[in-house]
Design goal:
The protein is α/β, with parallel strands linked by helices. The chain is built from 8 helices and 10 strands. The protein binds zinc ion (ZN). The site of zinc ion has 6 residues, from helix 2.
Amino acid sequence: MFTRIFMLCLAMTTIASAADDVLKLQLRSRTEVGVSEKPAAWEAKRTALIICDMWDDHWCKSAARRVTEMAGPFNDMIKQARARGVFIIHAPSSVTAFYKDAPQRKRAQAAPFVTTPVPLATAQRWGTAWCWTDPKHEAVLPIDDSDMGCSCVGAKCEIREAWKRQIATIEITADDAITDDGQETWNLLAARGITNVILAGVHLNMCVLGRPFAIRQQVYLGKNVALMRDLTDTMYNPERPPGVDHFTGTELVIEHVEKHWCPSFTSADLTGKRAFRFQEDSRRGKP
Ligand SMILES: [Zn+2]
């Protein structure tokens, strides 16, 4: 009898901890003078993870190769986040029509309309709403991506429509949602009382900052925003200013985000494993 009551208590404790899981994050921020890290405890059920533009292919061969390399560890991280109660939003920009019959896409479209506290971005880029670099909020980007950032050595890749869907390695499960739309994202978050938003995916100097579901827009909307800094990448050609290697270029943009927009943390805080690192990244030190 005693054992049975004990087991029941144990089971109830387990259920309670799964429902009330708290994410312990080391949030790194930056000022002009230095870098600081402080611990944060985010309720999993009040947190969304938005996966930006992890497409099946890319016009730049190097960019496509890096997404493929990242996709496995990325999916492992998502599984952990999902199991702990984080709401997963897949945001493969411009190819959500591929999922038009999926219940996860319909979930995003069916979320009840909620007015945003500030108007959503109306500027346009690449056929969608876009939050451009904001001189009131940030300095110019530390890398020159005006050539669109093909990092291939030798012949440069030709810009073309290369992507059709999210990369298949990343699983989309029953309770997830699919959208690349700012209003739909807001509606989904509102319906779940979500106040914390984690951004991961590519490319940090473009879509992870500028898309209507991404960092700038979420900060304008007043969410607690954080960037997962190891599971991201940039479009940066080392032949352009400031003339550093590709991965240092990415690190500079991460620093820019930490200084002007939101703190960052690594997937290690969620998975308990080592942070992700690209094989071609020969720099020393941690991401
Ligand atoms: Zn390329």
